[in-house]
Write a structure and sequence with these properties.
single chain; 281 residues; alpha+beta; 4-stranded antiparallel beta sheet; two-stranded antiparallel ribbon; 6 strands; 35% helix
């Protein structure tokens, strides 16, 4: 064999020898069950924490909503020499304080006159906090709804109604058939433009003015029914100076009417609870 070829010669036993390999092994059923159990346990431990964080975040956003509403009321009052948006619910007999949560109602609409502007006709339906949107002191109606609200009367329920009203009120155009046809409620309980007192003749009620300061409550979380409570264990209240305070109260959910009962009336334990919150301190 020529010396120029550097050929390496292997012995037959060397060519046939294979490298050592470990057998391939998967997870056993026991190991898989252990991993799944650990994941389930950790998830169970984390869920309450995540729910608590979400609840805290919703409270912060809800407080911000209340301040934004308060600022809109401040602008409204400044244009009206201190007067607050009028609430027709305080002028109804019998008094129904649950209706202080409404922003628009067809009950206040007169028979439509075809020669009358549609927007002007629909504007008669605004009430309470709804006047802020009517006069454009509040641009976005979603602010009237709390992210923590889990019951009826949420933003999703009324979003289309607000969109229809916006089309008519801002564009001054629209089909005459555009009419919510039902009362639009918010997630916040307006104190109203009067210091109402069930024990006093309504003719003696004095005006609630924006200049009254901290001692007067302007707004709170909804209390029309038990499902209208935005959070467990209490409510946020907005003072006239636009400061927000958390009032702990674990009894409200028990004394407020259940779903299906659309009124809190004008007497009894519920009214005493509302009066204790909204009366001047």
């Amino acid at each position: 064999m020529p010396s120029s070829l550097n050929t390496v010669m292997f012995k037959p036993e060397q060519r046939m020898k294979q490298p050592n390999r470990l057998p391939r092994r998967g997870y056993s059923l026991l190991e898989l069950l252990v991993v799944m159990s650990v994941v389930v346990l950790l998830t169970g431990l984390l869920l309450p924490t995540l729910a608590s964080v979400r609840d805290a975040a919703n409270r912060v956003i809800s407080k911000s909503n209340q301040r934004n509403i308060g600022q809109a009321i401040s602008l409204f009052a400044d244009s009206q020499k201190g007067d607050l948006p009028e609430s027709a619910a305080l002028r109804n007999a019998p008094l129904d304080l649950g209706e202080l949560m409404r922003a628009w109602t067809p009950e206040q609409l007169e028979v439509f006159d075809p020669y009358r502007k549609h927007a002007r006709w629909l504007s008669n339906g605004f009430d309470g906090l709804g006047h802020l949107y009517q006069y454009q002191f509040l641009q976005e109606p979603s602010v009237l709804y709390s992210p923590g609200h889990m019951g009826a009367h949420g933003w999703d329920e009324y979003e289309q109604n607000w969109s229809d009203l916006n089309q008519v009120m801002t564009m001054r155009v629209g089909n005459h058939d555009i009419n919510p046809g039902r009362t639009i409620y918010t997630n916040y309980h307006y104190a109203g433009d009067k210091y109402w007192d069930p024990a006093v003749d309504p003719s003696q009620w004095r005006d609630r003015l924006f200049t009254d300061g901290y001692s007067s409550i302007l707004l709170s979380d909804g209390m029309r029914r038990s499902s209208d409570l935005n959070f467990d264990g209490g409510i946020n209240v907005l003072h006239m100076d636009l400061s927000v305070e958390w009032l702990e109260d674990w009894q409200l959910g028990n004394i407020l009417p259940p779903d299906g009962q659309d009124t809190i009336g004008s007497g009894g334990q519920v009214i005493e609870a509302l009066w204790d919150i909204f009366r001047p301190h």
